[in-house]
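Aim 2, interim progress: modelling of the fe (iii) ion-bound target.
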Amino acid sequence: MPHDHHDHDHDNDHDHEHGQHPPEDVVLRVKALESLLVEKGVVDPAALDAIAEHYAERVGPKNGARVVARAWRDPTFHARLMADATEAIAELGFHGVQGEHMVAVQNTAAVHNLVVCTLCSCYPWPVLGLPPTWYKSNAYRSRAVIEPRKVLSEFGVELDPAVEIQVWDSTAEVRYLVIPERPAEADQLDEDALAELVTRNGMIGTALR
Ligand code: FE
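Predicted structure of the complex, ligand included:
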């Protein structure tokens, strides 16, 4: 729901935190394993960072890009996606933790959608992978709401002043996927080629596509 009208329990209990983060024991076990592997010289910490970065930038968002490309190519899929994103996304085999309650929001010539999690870093893992560092930053989380047009400009997105910006506040209950405007090429290109046009930022709303 629009940020102005949010009425979910983002601010008042711990369910949100529980929904957002992996269980503490899992985090501790992963950290312990990582420390051991580094200590034994099995892995280089920089290599681990590179793997995480690769997942955040490329591997994870490929799923979302597939969803967007399908929506651009197939009007009936697009309709299902807008009606029930969780179900439609599951048709492509993408589902699971942090992707249980998906909502797709469509960019148009009149409206640009931007996704944030003002409280922490809720993010649709099954379609976008890991959230980028900036998404988790205090600056993005507050400024995306207060001055979205300026934030977009810093990402290189200069919107016409007539274009309305709709900011969506993610929660443990709802995760958003931005569907960028359908490009003219969608009539010529196949789904694989179209998926290549879609970026991680485009699906958060910090890029046009
Ligand atoms: Fe959150």
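The chain has one domain: 4-204. The pocket of fe (iii) ion is lined by residues 20, 117, 119-122, 170 (CB under 6 Å).
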